[in-house]
Amino acid sequence: MSDDSRVLNALSNANKYGIAEYLAAGPRLLEEYKLAAEGVGNPRGGALVSAAVDCARAGIDGYINLELLESLHQIYLTRMGGDLLEPEHFEAALAWATKRRYGATSLLIRSESGFRAFDYITDSVMRDATAEPPPPELWQAVLESTRSSPASLASIASAAFKNNEMDVARTSWRVLAEGDSAYAGDSAVWLGVLAESQTKADEDQAVYWYSRAIELNESEGNTRLGLILQRRGELDRAEAELRSAAERGNAHGALHLGQLLQDNGHSVEAEKWLRRAALGDEARHFALTDFAVILETAGQVEEAETVYTKAAEWGVSGAKNSLALLALKTSGAAAARKIWLEAVEEGDPRAAKNLAKFHQERGEYSEAEWWLSEAARLGSSSGNTILANILVEQQKVGEAETVLRLDAEDGQPFAVLRLAEFLLDSNELEEAEALARAAHSMKVAGAASRIAAVLEKAGQTSELMHWWKLAAQEGDRVAKYRLALGLAEEGEFLEAEELLVELAETGTVVAACELGGILANSKRFPEAERWYQLSADGGHDHAACRHGQLLLKLGSVIRAEERLRYAFDRGHLHLRDQLAQALVRQGKGKAAAELLRGPRKTSRARPSRGRKPKGGRKA
After folding, report:
1. 3-class secondary structure for 96-122?
2. Burial class of 294 by CB neighbour count within 10 A (0 to 12, 13 to 18, 19+)
């Protein structure tokens, strides 16, 4: 099929006129109409056609009765010059406008129901961005003429909304919403949307109309009310409304229910609703990326790739960029770079920024800076965060801070957080705290842990546990470890144990060591031994130290010697006396004496709890 809009329109009207007739007659009829509408030749006839065209633009999908057409055409004739043009009589004007031309059709199409403009003319005016909007008098006239027809009133309301005639749209929707036609529920929703979108949003009025829509069994009312409740922090009520909408097949409700559940940590159920929003009968294509993120997080990488690909095919903004990020993890840098290049060609500034980061991480700073400029050309209002990282790697810390401030002052969330990190490293704690809190208010991931780090460095411990807890809820593993230590110090051993088990089972060896300590203090020795062993096997020497001490205490001297010596040989010299004790209890007095006569150097200090956990996988 041709991309020429004239051919498309001809095909859609082929059953009325035939393709050849439509294409051949259309331009000539349009030219005749334009001349007449400018007052040349048949000004009254041109006014009649203009009135019919604008009635169609105003939402009247059908024929206009002669009385309305005669009344409306005076608006256009007056605008042209009125009596000064010496216009033809009305009967002559109507005859001219309805005369069949070029063997195809006429400017005005006559039927038993009334008149309408030839589709080619109406389509041409609708496509013309410079065309004057329908006059206010026409809107009021068509509104009054259609009050008894809900379908026509709904069409006029929609057209008025698109033409920014909000008073007409509001009046039309109110009549419908207060009635009992099939258009009542949808109209109530639109009245709520209008209340929210006006310059001074009237949220209470929006709630009223969304509640009216719910009474009328319109599920979009539940969705919109749920979003207002979510903004107000009434999450239980919000979830109930969104769930009500989603369970009745509302894809919009399913999307926001899935997002709310995901935010609250219910990823399994979130996947169900996001899947429905993205792939259901009333799919919302922009839900595809949310659904894909859920799949990727759950480790369902192949399905996530399929969904990202479908989103990209459907033109969902940012989908190809997300697909490249996934490819970077699964297929390597070359595959990701290829997809990013495709996304840049399609005009995605995020892809250009990721290419900049891609080259920056490889030390290819000239290429990185070029891609940053390309991102700016494509409309990105940020990029200084990446440039700051480049400058840091080039030992230009002062310049890095300067460029970061540009984005931070412009309200770029990640730049605000990155600047807070810079200031934390520079011990400018007061400003660092203010920026980290600002980033948290912008919902930037990682802000809570930075606030905790600033407070800890400043010696302000009263809020620490609060911020470690918030950071832990965001999935920050270091925060979970620090929170567990704090809970243990407060005597909340069960909660501490749960966090440490989660971390230890996923490879955080320092957490396994701390877990062993809590279990040993609870006299759960077999469990403590297991975690000490796993931690030590993962390369955490201090776990071997504590394991050996526990074994010695339990009388398992042979195994105690093995663990203690392992740790002793790796710098834990404070174990000398305990290792000698294990030797003596096995009858190895000579070896114990030689050990005790050895040099007593300072033991390697155990890492402070205030530092980032080391050894094995990072917390």
Report:
1. HHHCCECCCECCEEEECCEEEECHHHH
2. buried
Domain with CATH 1.25.40.10 in the chain: 381-473, 485-597
**Would you put residue 420 in left (φ > 0), alpha (ψ -120 to 50) or beta?**
alpha
What kind of fold does domain 381-473 have according to CATH?
Answer: 1.25.40
Give the position of tokens 């006299």. Answer: 523
Q: What angle do CA 29, 35, 41 make, to 5 degrees?
A: 105
- Classified as helix, coil or strand, 588 is coil
Tell if the pTM clears 0.70, that is, is over it: no
What three-state secondary structure class fits 601?
coil
Closest CA to 118 of 127, 103, 102, 107: 107
Residues found in the chain: 619
Q: Sort residue 196 into left (φ over 0), alpha (ψ -120 to 50) or beta.
A: alpha
What tens digit of pLDDT does each residue of 28-44 get? 888 888 898 888 888 99
Burial class from Cβ neighbours inside 10 Å (0-12, 13-18, 19+) for residue 605 reads exposed
Q: What is the pLDDT of residues 536-577, one digit of tens each?
A: 888 898 988 999 899 999 899 999 899 999 989 888 888 889
97 vs 37, 62, 81, 151, 358, CA distance in Å?
A: 12, 17, 19, 28, 65
- DSSP letter, residue 555: T
CA distance 433 to 391: 23
Give the Cα separation of 86 and 84 in Å (integer): 5
Are 471 and 452 a contacting pair, CB within 8 Å? yes
CATH: 3.40.50.300, 1.25.40.10, 1.10.3720.10, 3.40.50.1820. Which one for 485-597?
Answer: 1.25.40.10
CA dist list (Å): 593 to 445, 551, 576, 598:
56, 21, 11, 9
Task: Output the CA–CA distances (angstroms, integers) from residue 445 to 88, 256, 519, in the order listed.
Answer: 72, 20, 33
Which distant-in-sequence residues (6+ apart) come within 8 Å of 495 by Cβ? 484, 487
pLDDT of 225 strictly over 90: yes
